[in-house]
Amino acid sequence: MRLRALVAALALGCGVPGHVVTPASARALMVHSIEWNPRKEHVGAATGALDLGGDLVLFGERETTILSDGVATTTRGDLRPAGIIPAPDGSGTWLTALDARGVLYRLRARRTFEPVSDRYGLDGKRIAAVTGFGGRWVAFAIGDTGVAIADGAQVVHFDLAGVRALAGGGARAWAARDHDVVELDPVARTMRTYESVSPRVAISSAGRAFVASGAAIYTQSDAGDLALRYVADRDVDALVASSERVWFTSGGDLGVIDGDAVEIARHALAPASRLVASLSGDVWAIDASGAVTRWSRGAAPSTTAPASWDDAVAPVFARACAQCHTRGGASGVDLSNAPAWRTKHDLIRQRVLVDRDMPPNAPLSDADRATLARFLDAR
Ligand code: HEC
User: What pLDDT shows up at residue 18?
Assistant: First the structure.
């Protein structure tokens, strides 16, 4: 698979094929920033971030700050972000970090980090990168020697030196190296290599791969090939997957690839910002000075007149509740109309805004939670 030849051909001015999107032909992306530090807690310059549910961890050069529901706890140390991964016993999802020696830690009880390399059978190993994927798999890049993929029951090893970063989605992990990106299939135990210069990889929740190299972004076709999808006017600085969508940034533009659509918000970010995906579908941007912003797709929710159930709740319901709460649905509780929300007002408030155990399968985005809060508070 030769990505390099195609990029070179584009650079030589051979023109961009019709199906390839450019900044000029991309649709406009509507984004708004979300307040993530309402109590104005002190946080230092960040080099990395991870969030899970109501917890946000900001990693700095010498300290780590944990914000749980807006309240900050800061500890000294040299942790850097690892990933959001399934716990080895399947008991939940862990927010994980790595120290300088390659020991893996997980956030415990919302305020401390606990070492957990041994829980994955990796005691004493130098873990370089981690990714969780497909609900039960975790891939670890170990030292400079290989990638181990665990599913809680067994571990599959791949001999692969020089892995810089890991990404995963569907039932595959992808390892980015200096001059190629390697797709690892832990079930068939096979590897497939795609040549690419300093690739960045992101995998959507459906398992489709996106690879950035230079100013180009390739997406994986159903046949497994990588096809050119977008050519920016600057190099792509970051590419991350957040649920079904992939966010990227290039020269300060913030972009989203969602299904077949490529959308761009021009000059939304400071140039050379890093991106960090949130499971909620939002994205974190960290600029060169360590300032953190959180971005959500869509127009900023209006703060004026209380909206009707149809306007405010119906879209969120369709996204986040309908799967289980339609009439005759799996939960046995019909919440598909305004009268049901009046009757169960307090219970909905409790489960969605206080306990936050609804929806049980995927966290609500902050924007959706804010929409429901405004609707529920207005009554
Ligand atoms: C993946 C399935 C699923 C999704 C998605 C889901 N729920 Fe539920 N929900 C359940 C199940 C199952 C129950 C019953 C068991 C329980 O109470 O935990 C339930 C119970 C509830 C209850 C308690 C109802 C009662 O009468 O006891 C409320 C309130 C609720 N859900 C609200 C919501 C809202 C609002 C959303 C969307 C923002 C949502 N749920 C999304 C599965 C789901």
Answer: 64
Compute the average pLDDT of residues 33-53. 90
Which residue has the least CA distance to atom 31 on ligand 1?
Answer: 358
Whether residue 196 is predicted with pLDDT greater than 60 in this model: the reply is yes
- Report which protein residue has its CA nearest ligand 1's atom 20: 331
Ligand 1 nearest-atom number relative to CA 364: 38
Instruction: Establish whether residue 320 lines the binding site of ligand 1, counting it when its CB lies within 6 angstroms of any ligand atom.
Output: yes
Contact assessment for residue 187 and residue 158, using Cβ atoms and an 8 Å cutoff: no
**Choice among 29-38, 239-248, 293-302 with the minimum mean pLDDT:** 293-302
Ligand 1 center to residue 359 CA distance, Å?
6
Is residue 332 within 8 A of residue 360, CB to CB? The reply is no
Q: Is the minimum distance from the CB of 325 to ligand 1 under 6 angstroms? A: yes
- Give the Cα separation of 220 and 321 in Å (integer): 30
Long-range residue pairs from 348-355, CB within 8 A, at least 24 positions apart, any chain: 348/372, 348/376, 349/376, 352/376
pLDDT of amino acid 214? 93
Q: Is the distance from the beta carbon of residue 162 to the nearest atom of ligand 1 less than 6 Å?
A: no
Half-sphere exposure of 311 (CA within 13 A, CB side): 8
Q: Do the beta carbons of residue 98 and residue 127 sit within 8 Å?
A: yes
pLDDT (tens digit, 9 = 90+) per residue, 282-304? 899 999 999 999 999 887 765 55
pLDDT greater than 90 at residue 280: no
Degrees to nearest 5, angle at CA 159 with 197 and 190: 85
Ligand 1 pocket, residue 182 CB under 6 Å: no
Q: How far is the CA of 189 from the centre of ligand 1 (A)?
A: 39
